[in-house]
Predict the structure.
Amino acid sequence: MRILIGSPVHQKPEILSLFLQALERLEAPDVLPDYLFVDDNDNPTSSQWLADFSNRLPGRVLPLLTGSQQVENRSDEHTHYWPPALVWKVAGFKNRLIDYALQHNYDALFLVDSDLILHSRTLCKLVEVEKDIVSEIFWTRWQPEGPLLPQVWVSDEYNLFHREEGEVLSAEERAQRELHFIHQLHVPGLYEVGGLGACTLIRRRALEAGIHFGKIKNVSYWGEDRHFCIRAAAFGFPLFVDTHYPAMHLYREADRIKAEQLLFTLKYFTTSTVHTDHSEHLAYLDHSDTSTNSPAFNRSASSSPSKFPEPPVIPYDLRESAVFAKYTADSFVVPQTFSGPRQSELHTPPVSKPKLTLTMTVYNEADRKLIDVLRSHREYIDEAVIIDDGSQDDSGELCREILKGIPLRLIRNETASFTNELELRKQQWRETLASSPKWILNMDADEMFESRFAQGVHSLLAGTKADTICFRLFDMWSSTHYRDDDYWQAHRYYRPFLIRYKEGFSYKWKEQSLHCGRFPENVLDLPSEISNYRIQHWGWYTPAIRMAKCQRYQLLDPSARYGWKEQYESILDPNPRLTLWVDQDNINVEKETAPEYEAAHQVNDMDVAEISSVQVINNSDLQIKSETKDLLYSKCKLCGSSDTAVFHSYERFTLMGCGSCGLVFRNDVDHIQPEDMIAEIYNAEWVAMRDSAAASTYGDHALFGLMLLDMFSTGKGKLLEIGSGTGEFIHAALQAGWDAVGIEPSIDSRAYAKYKYDVDLLPGYWGDEAEEDTQTEEAHEIQELKEAEEAEEAEEAEEDTDLLLDHKYEAVACWHVLEHIADPVTFLTDLREQLQPDGTIYITVPNKNSFTNEAYGVYSPLFTEEDHLYHYSEHTLALLLAKSGLRPVALFTRQLPSGLDALLQAHPLYGELTLTEQMGLLAKLQGEKRGHELCCVARVI
C-alpha cells in the first residue's frame, strides 16, 4: 500500500524538529511511505529542518511545495489565532496535497499537522482499521484553565453530545452526554464521529469521490476541517476516530518541554531494549522478600528450577503508550492490556489530603444495606452528616455504631418528610454546609462505590481542578447482576455525586417535590469531570424492595408527573435483562448466567464501545484446565459473594478475584494441604538462601518486628510467633527481654535456628498435630531404630506444643504467615482466644495493591507464588480481622529501598530516577499504602 504523508508547515524550529523526529519513528504497514511538505515557513531554520529531514531519508521525501511565506501572528501562550484568510490558505495547501496524491496514484494520504508527536504505531493502526476516513485522537486544553477536549466531535460545529432528531435536552442531560462522549474516547477503540481533523488518513476511494477542504459557500462554520467533514457526509463516507495511540499536541511551551522528555525517553528505550539484561530484576527478586518465615520471590540458584514463567518483557508498543501517557498526564489513559497506575499515581509532589464529608439521609434502613454501605464509606471519609428522616427502626443507632471514631452530625426528624423530597434535600444541604465542608460526597443509604474507590479517592480529589465529579450508577437487581434494558440505563450516563463546595456560588435547586436531585441542579455549571469509579445502587436488589418501591411510586406519583411511567411499570417485570457485575481489577473474566432469571444480557463488543467502562474481555485464547473449571465460581472465601471471576490462570493453579470485596484467592483453596506445600518449599535449599541474606533478614525484618512490639506491647511478657522460619525474630525478641517461643513446621529451618542462634523452635502447625519430620516420611528405608527415636521426639514436641495452650500471650506474631493459611478466619479466631485481654496480634502479608504488582502485573512474583493462597489488600485484611473478632490498631504498608532500581526498570511508566526522586517515590508509596508489605497491629474488638 503506497501512502503519502503530507503536511503544510509553518512552524517554530524547536517544534518542527520534534515533529520530524516522531515522523521518522513511524512504523510502515507495508511499503515505506513518502513525505510531501508545503514549506510555508518564515523562519529559515525551519526550512533547513525540512531539508535535513529530506537528506536523512533519501528518495522518500518529495520536493517541497512552497507557500506564500507571509508572516502572520498565529499564536501566544494562551491560545492560537486563525483569521479566515489563514484558514482558507491552509485549506488550499491541503487540497494541493490531495491533488498530488491522486495524480501520482497513492493508495492513501495521511494528513498530519506539524505540531503533533505521533506514536510509532499510529500509521499502522489507521491502515489496519480499513476505514476510508479515520483520524487518530489527540487532546488539547484550548484555554489555559479550560478542560481537555478532543479534536473530534459529534455534530454541527463542535457538539460533543448525541441527540436524536427532534430531541430536546436539558442543560444537565446535555452535560451528562458530553461527559459520556469524552469518557468513551478515553477507552482504546474505534468510534464513529461527526467531525475530525489534523491527523487523518484518507483512502483513495474518498479522494477520488471529490472530497476536499474548500469552502462551502452556504455554510458559515469556521475551519476547513468542518467543510471537509460535511462533504464527506454528503458523499456517504462515515468518519471514524481511533483512540489506541493518542498523539501529543504541542500547543504551548510546556507541551514542547514534555515532548522533548518523551522523545528522549523513547530513544533510550529504543537503544537499550535489545541489550536489556533482566538478571538484575531477578537478582532483586531473590532477596527482596526476606521476611522471617516466607520464601523469596524466586528461589536462589541452588534451589530447584522455578515452576513459574519469568515476568514477561512488556511489548514495546505498550511501553511506548505508557511513556506517552506519562508525558501527556493530563489526558492519561491506561491501555486495555496494561494494568499500571492511573494518572494520579504518576510520581508527583506529595499533596495534602482534602477533607471529605459524607452526607446521607436514612429511613428504616437497618435491615437492608446500611451496615455494608457505612463500612465501605468509613474507609475514606473524614466526617459524616446524616439525617435520620423519621426511621422507626435502629437506623440512627447503626450510623453511630458503624461510624464510631469518625466525626458525625446525626440529625433526627421525628416525622418522615419523604413525601416532599425537595424539602428533605434542602435540609440535608443546610446541615452539611454547617460542618464547613471542603468536598461533599452525597450518597443514599443504598449506594456504595466499588472497592477500589477507597484507595483512589483522595488522589482523585487532590489532583483535580474540577468542582463537580460525575460517576455512573448501576442498579443492582441481584447480588451479582445489574439491570440493563431500555428502561434502566442509569449506568450509561454520568451524574454528580461529589462536589467541591464553592463559597459565593449561587446554588439553585430544581423546585419539584419528587426527583429534585441530590444536589442543586446547577452544580454542573461549575468545572466538571467524569470518573470511571462505579457506584452500585442496591435499592432494587430483592423482590420485596422492588414491590415496596413500586407501591411508593404509585402512591406519590400516580400519573408519573415526576418520573417515567414505563419505567415505573417495568419495576416488577418478571424477566428483566441483566448483566453480570465485573470487578475491574480482574484481568480476565468469564461470563456467568444470572441466578434469578434466564434472560441475562450478554455484553458484546458494541456494548463495550457504548458503555465505556464496562470492559468484559472476551479472551478466546484463555485456556483453563479442565480440573479447575468446576471450581472457578466458588463463593468468595471472605465476604461470601458469588461475584467471583478468574483473575489469572497459571500453569499449576488459578487465582480468582471477588467483585464485591476485591479479595484474590486460589480457586482450589478448599482442597489444598498447605503442610505439603511448606514441606516441599521450605527445604534445605531455601534455608541456604536465607543464610546468604541473614544480615538483611535480621535488620530489615526481625528488628522491625521488635520495633512494633516496643510501640504497642510494652510489657515484654509472653510472646508467641507462628511460623518462625529460621529464627531471627525469636532470637531478637529473646535478646530484648521477651519470654518468647516460636512454632515452625520445617525441620530444616528449625535446625538452622538452633545452629545459628541457639534457639529451640517447636515443630508443628498451629491448631494441628505436631509435624512429623518430612525426612522421616520420605526415607522409607531408614533404620527402624532411627524411626522410633524420631517418633519419640515428635511426641515430645507435640506435648510441648500443647503446653502453649496453657498460657495467655501478651503478643502473637505472624510474619508472612496469613497468606499461607487455608482457613484464615478460624486461624485468627483461635489466636484471638490465646491473647491476654489487652493482648496484640502482629501480622504482615504481601500487599495486593503494591508497587511490585503494578510493575509486573499478573506475573508479579507475589501472584505466582504457588503457596500464596490469598492476596490481601488493606480493605480485605480489615474485613478478615472483623470476621475474626479483631480490629486494626495500625494498618500500613512498607516498601524497602533495596531493589527499587529493578522495580523501576520493570515498571512501564518509570525509568532511572535520581536518589531524591527515589526517596520521594518511596514516601509516596508509603502514603498511598502501595508498599510491598502490608503490616497490621490488631487487638480484640
About this structure: Residues 376 and 448 are 7 Å apart (CA to CA).
